[in-house]
Amino acid sequence: MKSSTLALLSSAGIASAALQVDLSSADSIKQAASQVAWDLLQYYKGNQSGATPGILPGPPPAGDYYWWQAGAMWGTLVDYWHYTGDTAYNKLSSDSMIFQAGAPQNSYMPPNWTASLGNDDQGFWGLSAMLAAEVGFPNPPPDQPQWLALAQAVFNTQAAPDRHDDTCNGGLRWQIPNYNVGYDYKNAISNGIFFNLGARLARYTGNQTYADIATKTWNWVTGVGLMDSAWNVYDGGHVQVNCTDIFKAQFSYNAAIFLQGAAFMYNFTNGSDVWKERTQGLVDRTVEVFFHNGPAVEVSCELQNSIQCKTDMLSFKGYLHRWMAQTTQVAPFTHEKIMATLQKSTAAAVKSCQGGPNGRQCGFRWTTGQFDGLLGAGQQMNALAALSSLLVDQAGIKPPLTNSTGGTSQGNPNAGQTATDVFHHPPPTTGDKAGASILTILILGGIMSSFVWMSTGLSEKGM
Ligand SMILES: *[C@@H]1O[C@H](CO)[C@@H](O)[C@H](O)[C@H]1NC(C)=O
Ligand SMILES: *[C@@H]1O[C@H](CO)[C@@H](O)[C@H](O)[C@H]1NC(C)=O
Ligand SMILES: *[C@@H]1O[C@H](CO)[C@@H](O)[C@H](O)[C@H]1NC(C)=O
Ligand SMILES: *[C@@H]1O[C@H](CO)[C@@H](O)[C@H](O)[C@H]1NC(C)=O
Ligand SMILES: *[C@@H]1O[C@H](CO)[C@@H](O)[C@H](O)[C@H]1NC(C)=O
Ligand SMILES: *[C@@H]1O[C@H](CO)[C@@H](O)[C@H](O)[C@H]1NC(C)=O
Ligand SMILES: *[C@@H]1O[C@H](CO)[C@@H](O)[C@H](O)[C@H]1NC(C)=O
């Protein structure tokens, strides 16, 4: 069905079912968020008989979603619980994050998903585990992997020498197995998550080593030009040319992962000038690039006349909102600017929620005040993130915990150090491999065409 037809149907037939919310009322936000969460979970089939627990339908071609996106969804639901107190999805989230941990090493590298296992894919699950520790999400039974140890396992496997080499002067590659398409690309999100986890582990545990590694990663990212002196964060570069071909598309999650990490470094250093300047620079530039007169816009693929965003990219706005909201807790000087921005963007997001069979599912484009006909788990996650993040200032919502301010998650500084070496696994089956290369072809194809637009679009606006 054409999207225009869908939009017409929704506005003609069941527009009265559109999501209703009064953003000045916490109760109203909670009510709306619970509806958006329920609609999100309709995309989850992992609890049906015969299905694999913990994942969204996929990876392509078996379904729309790569493994990492479910990891991001459980994190979105951990935040949802933290901000609203609604425990409805806690057991599902907890069971899923444990089932996919990749026993017995429990470093989020389950053999099933090796064919599309990037450092960023593994990292997204690690971020959700880190968040669970920080918000005091109920601890798993003692014989199961624990949140902090899971985050440490992801960090440790990424800090290990076998993930690093001298091409481009250092940094993490995108893919982990050397036979995956994309192994030759060093990108912002992989290094951004590694930096972000280091900053948060430093603050949670008080262990300076994590902060030192995070700082080293930051220095590499700025040195190689993935972040420039005007705080633009670019996507990646190829090792064959020593990363001199920096691909300058800007995605909101790349900016936000560094912003949130910088805020944690600011907090860990008790408010150092250097991390304050970096946090402020990233706040200002992120708002400038991604929030156009209010609503969040995924500028590199959300074009004026067409949406070029792939399934992955359709979910980035949610991380943008969540990571900016948490930034305000650890770097309170950013609070006024960030919350004013998130308020306006959320008001616009909600207006897109007038689609789907029940007339209240959310679309991707937030700038039109209408539903754009694009339904999906990412779009629901975005709206859920936007709504629940607005509750960050409610009484009783604690800033991220540490192990000396109420955090109870059990860690293990050596977690993940016996992880299976996926480099030595036999190459995946043809079906799996096709999935991974389709991802790359789609991403590179989509980005390349939209990047042409972006350069022109930005120069037209005089940016
Ligand atoms: C799966 O979980 C969803 C969300 O909690 C729920 O709505 C659905 O009924 C569950 N399905 C089964 C088969 O348990
Ligand atoms: C891996 O795939 C097998 C076969 O589909 C499935 O039974 C198992 O639950 C999967 N494990 C994980 C962690 O996804
Ligand atoms: C917090 O973790 C660090 C590093 O693991 C440890 O040295 C310290 O004793 C812990 N503090 C508390 C209060 O548990
Ligand atoms: C601090 O973290 C490093 C890096 O993971 C680890 O090797 C070391 O054992 C940790 N120290 C403590 C006291 O936990
Ligand atoms: C690769 O780039 C780095 C800067 O990112 C530079 O320090 C290094 O000398 C370059 N190496 C080669 C072989 O050109
Ligand atoms: C931050 O302040 C705490 C408490 O005064 C102190 O223990 C810690 O060493 C300081 N950290 C840094 C990086 O200055
Ligand atoms: C660090 O975060 C805490 C909240 O956990 C906050 O109270 C404190 O003001 C922050 N520190 C700085 C220097 O902003």
From TrEMBL:
Leader sequence segment: 1-17
EC numbers for this chain: 3.2.1.101
Disordered: annotated segments: 401-430
One annotated GO molecular function: mannan endo-1,6-alpha-mannosidase activity
Chain intervals with Polar residues compositional bias: 401-420
Protein keywords: Glycoprotein, Glycosidase, Hydrolase, Membrane, Signal, Transmembrane, Transmembrane helix
SUPFAM superfamilies per record: Six-hairpin glycosidases
Superkingdom to which the source organism belongs: Eukaryota
Keyword Cytoplasm appears in the UniProt entry: no
A GO CC term attached to the entry: endomembrane system
Principal place of residence: membrane
GO biological process assignments: carbohydrate catabolic process; fungal-type cell wall biogenesis
Keyword Cell membrane among UniProt keywords: no
Positions of transmembrane segments: 434-454
Reaction catalysed by this enzyme: Random hydrolysis of (1->6)-alpha-D-mannosidic linkages in unbranched (1->6)-mannans
Pfam families: Glyco_hydro_76
InterPro entries for the chain: 6-hairpin_glycosidase_sf (IPR008928), Glyco_hydro_76 (IPR005198), Mannan-1_6-alpha_mannosidase (IPR014480)
Localization per Swiss-Prot or TrEMBL: Endomembrane system
Family listed: Belongs to the glycosyl hydrolase 76 family.
Record protein name field: Mannan endo-1,6-alpha-mannosidase
Naturally occurring in which organism (per UniProt): Thyridium curvatum
